[in-house]
Amino acid sequence: MLNRSSFVLLAAASTAFALTEFNWTSIEPSTSLNWTACYADGLDCARLLVPLDYASPNNSTTAALAITRFRSTSPSSSYRGPILLNPGGPGGSGVEFAVVYGSEIAGIVGAEYDIVGFDPRGVSFSTPTISWFLNDAERALWYPPNQNTVLPSLNETALGLPYAYARAQVQSQLAAARDADFLQYMTTDYTAQDMLTITEAFGFEKLKYWGVSYGTVLGQTFAALFPDKVERVVIDGVLPIDDWYSANLTETMLDTNQVLDAFFTSCFEAGPSVCAFHNNASSPSDIATALVDLLLSLQQKPVPAVASLTAGNAGYGVVDYSLVKNVIFQSLYQPYKEFPALAQALADLAAGNASTIYAASGPQEFTCEPGAAPVNKMFEAGASITCTDVRLNDTLADLQSYYAGMAAISEFADVWVPVRIACAGWKVHRPGQYTGPTGPTNTSAPLLVIGNLRDPVTSWPGANQTAEVLFPGAGFLTYNASGHTSFIAPSTCLDAYVGAYFRNGTLPPAGAVCQPDVQLFATNASARADGGGVSRRGVPGLTMGGMGTRKGLFSF
Ligand SMILES: *[C@@H]1O[C@H](CO)[C@@H](O)[C@H](O)[C@H]1NC(C)=O
Ligand SMILES: *[C@@H]1O[C@H](CO)[C@@H](O)[C@H](O)[C@H]1NC(C)=O
Ligand SMILES: *[C@@H]1O[C@H](CO)[C@@H](O)[C@H](O)[C@H]1NC(C)=O
Ligand SMILES: *[C@@H]1O[C@H](CO)[C@@H](O)[C@H](O)[C@H]1NC(C)=O
Ligand SMILES: *[C@@H]1O[C@H](CO)[C@@H](O)[C@H](O)[C@H]1NC(C)=O
Ligand SMILES: *[C@@H]1O[C@H](CO)[C@@H](O)[C@H](O)[C@H]1NC(C)=O
Ligand SMILES: *[C@@H]1O[C@H](CO)[C@@H](O)[C@H](O)[C@H]1NC(C)=O
Ligand SMILES: *[C@@H]1O[C@H](CO)[C@@H](O)[C@H](O)[C@H]1NC(C)=O
Ligand SMILES: *[C@@H]1O[C@H](CO)[C@@H](O)[C@H](O)[C@H]1NC(C)=O
Ligand SMILES: *[C@@H]1O[C@H](CO)[C@@H](O)[C@H](O)[C@H]1NC(C)=O
Ligand SMILES: *[C@@H]1O[C@H](CO)[C@@H](O)[C@H](O)[C@H]1NC(C)=O
Ligand SMILES: *[C@@H]1O[C@H](CO)[C@@H](O)[C@H](O)[C@H]1NC(C)=O
C-alpha cells in the first residue's frame, strides 16, 4: 500500500514549472507553523496540529493539517498576513491550489500577503485522511479506470438509478466502518474553525480568504459562525449555504444548459476550420442536432476504444453514452480551454474513432507496482464531507422524484444527481454540528461575491441570492463568462476588482460586470485560455475539486 502522506502532487506532470517531490511525513506536526521549503522556489510547507473535536479542545486527539504558503516577498514592515484558499470539491487539495496558483494570486493581490493553501481535515495530505478502501487495489476494483462508476449517467440503463442507490449504500457502510474514529469530525463547520486556527497561528485575528465552488460554502459557513472575524472573504462560483445544508441542489443546475448552448453557438460562429464538430452547419441548432444524434446512437451501440497501448488498463475501454455525457459535462467547467478539444473528440467519434474521447475521459492507470502513481481519493473525501454535513435520508422513491425534478431543469441531471445519491444510507453525523443559517448574517466586513453568468454547477441566481439575502451589504460582481468560477479565464477587469477588495476593502459598484480577456474557440493564441497564449488560469490537467478537471472527479 502506498504511504498516503508521501504522495507526489498529482498536478506535477502537467504544470509549467518544475516541482520537486515532497515527503509530508518528513515534517513533524506542531501546534505552531514551522516552515520547511517544499515543491518549488517561493513555497514552504508545514503541518499544524488542531483539535480533532473542537467541542473537546483539551482532548489530546488531533488532526494535522497540511499547509503550503507562497511566501510574501515584502519587507516585514509592509507584510499583511495570510490569504487562505480553498479550491472546492469538497475534497480538493488546497496545497495543490497554492502550489499551482500561488504566484498568480500574489500577482493579483500583491506581494504583501502569504498565499496559503491548506488541505481541509480528512483531505489529501492532511491526516487522518478519509479513505473508504483498505488499499488502492480495492479502490480500483470498485472504481474502474474510466471513472463512470463514480457519476454514472442515470439514463444509460433503466436500472441506472436503483443500481447507483445500492452502490452508494455499500460505500456509506464502508466509510462508517473504516473511518469510524474520525469521520464525524470531518465537517465544513470544523474546517471553518480550522481556518480561524490557521489565521491565528499566523498571528492574525481575522480571516482573509478566497474560496471557489464548494469553497464558497466553507467561506459562508465561516462568516455565519464567526461574523466578527471577517476581514476579507471572496466567494467565487457560489453555492448558497441554505441550499447546501438543506441538500436542495436545485439551484446548482439552473444555468447548465446555457453553457452547452454556448458550445453550439461559439462552434457555429468559429466555423468549420476552427470547430471540428461544425460539419458545415447552417445554424447552432444543426450542431445541437448532430450531438443528440450521436448520443442516441451510443445508447443503441457503445463503441470500442483503444486510445493507448502503453497506458496499461487506462489505455483502452468502451465508449458509451455515460462516458460521453461525462466528458461533455466536464468540458462545461472550463469551456475556454476544453471546447476545441471536445469538438475534435466528438468529430472523431462521429467519424468512428472513439479513442480521442476515451483519452479525454481521463482514465487513470492503475498498477500495484511500488511507487506507482497514487489514486485520487477526492471523491471519497468529498462525498464523506458532503454527506456528513447534510441530513439526508432518501428512499429510492425520493431519489426518483428528485431526479425527475432535476431532469426538468437540466440536460445533465443524469450525471449530476449521483452527487446526491452518494449520500444514500449515510449515517454519520455529529451531535451539535452546524446545520445552516437561520437568517441573514451581518459580518465585520463585507464579503465579495462573484457569479458567472453561465456556470454549469453554481448558478448566477445562487450568487445573486447570497449577496442579496444571506449576506446583505456584500459586494457583487457578475462575470460575463461561460464555465465554473472566475478561474476559468483570465480577466484584467476581475483582477482589478479583487485586488482592490483585498488591498483596500473597496467593493465593485452596484451592477458591475466584467468580461473575460479570452474568447471561446479563439484562434489567436493571445485570446486562448489553454496556456498557449496566457500565462495564468486554466492550467491543464489539474486534479483539484471545483475546477472541473479531466482527472478530478468534478463536483463543486
Ligand atoms: C518520508 O519521510 C519519512 C519520515 O522521515 C520516512 O520514514 C519515509 O521513508 C520517507 N518516505 C519517502 C518516500 O522518502
Ligand atoms: C521545526 O522543524 C525542524 C525541522 O523539521 C525541527 O528540527 C525543529 O525541531 C522544529 N521546531 C519546532 C519548534 O517544532
Ligand atoms: C482546557 O484546558 C485549559 C488549560 O488547562 C483550561 O483553561 C480550559 O478550561 C480547558 N477547556 C475545556 C473545554 O475543558
Ligand atoms: C478523546 O477523543 C477520542 C476520539 O473522539 C475519544 O475516543 C476519547 O474518548 C476522548 N478522550 C477523552 C479523555 O475525552
Ligand atoms: C429548492 O430550491 C428551489 C430553487 O431555489 C426552490 O424552488 C424549491 O422550493 C426548493 N425545494 C425545497 C424542498 O426546499
Ligand atoms: C464543408 O463544405 C466544404 C465546401 O463546400 C467542403 O469542401 C467540405 O467537404 C464540407 N465538409 C463537410 C464535413 O461536409
Ligand atoms: C483516432 O484519432 C486520434 C486523434 O485524432 C488519432 O491519433 C488516431 O490515429 C485515430 N485512430 C484511428 C484508428 O484512426
Ligand atoms: C430514515 O428513513 C427510515 C425509513 O423511512 C426511517 O425508519 C428512519 O427513522 C429515518 N431516519 C432518520 C434519521 O430520519
Ligand atoms: C433521460 O432519458 C429520457 C428518455 O429516456 C429523456 O426524456 C430525458 O431527457 C433524459 N434525461 C437526461 C437528463 O438526459
Ligand atoms: C444587521 O444589520 C442591520 C443594519 O444594521 C440590522 O438592521 C439587523 O438587525 C442586523 N441583523 C442581525 C442579525 O444582526
Ligand atoms: C440580484 O438580481 C436582481 C434582479 O436582477 C437585481 O435587482 C439585484 O440588484 C441583484 N443583486 C445584486 C447584489 O446584484
Ligand atoms: C488602494 O488605495 C490606495 C490609496 O487610496 C491607492 O493608491 C491604491 O491604488 C489602491 N489599490 C488598489 C489595488 O485599488
UniProtKB/TrEMBL annotation:
Pfam families: Abhydrolase_1 (PF00561), Abhydrolase_4 (PF08386)
Signal peptide as annotated in the record: 1-18
Domain AB hydrolase-1: 82-250
Peptidase S33 tripeptidyl aminopeptidase-like C-terminal domain: residues covered: 412-514
Entry-linked SUPFAM superfamilies: alpha/beta-Hydrolases
InterPro entries the record matches: AB_hydrolase_1 (IPR000073), AB_hydrolase_fold (IPR029058), Pept_S33_TAP-like_C (IPR013595), Serine_prot/Carboxylest_S33 (IPR051601)
GO molecular function: hydrolase activity
Keywords: Hydrolase, Signal
UniProt cross-references to PANTHER family, sorted A to Z: 2-SUCCINYL-6-HYDROXY-2,4-CYCLOHEXADIENE-1-CARBOXYLATE SYNTHASE, AB HYDROLASE-1 DOMAIN-CONTAINING PROTEIN-RELATED
Family: Belongs to the peptidase S33 family.
Name assigned to this protein: AB hydrolase-1 domain-containing protein
Organism expressing this protein natively: Mycena chlorophos
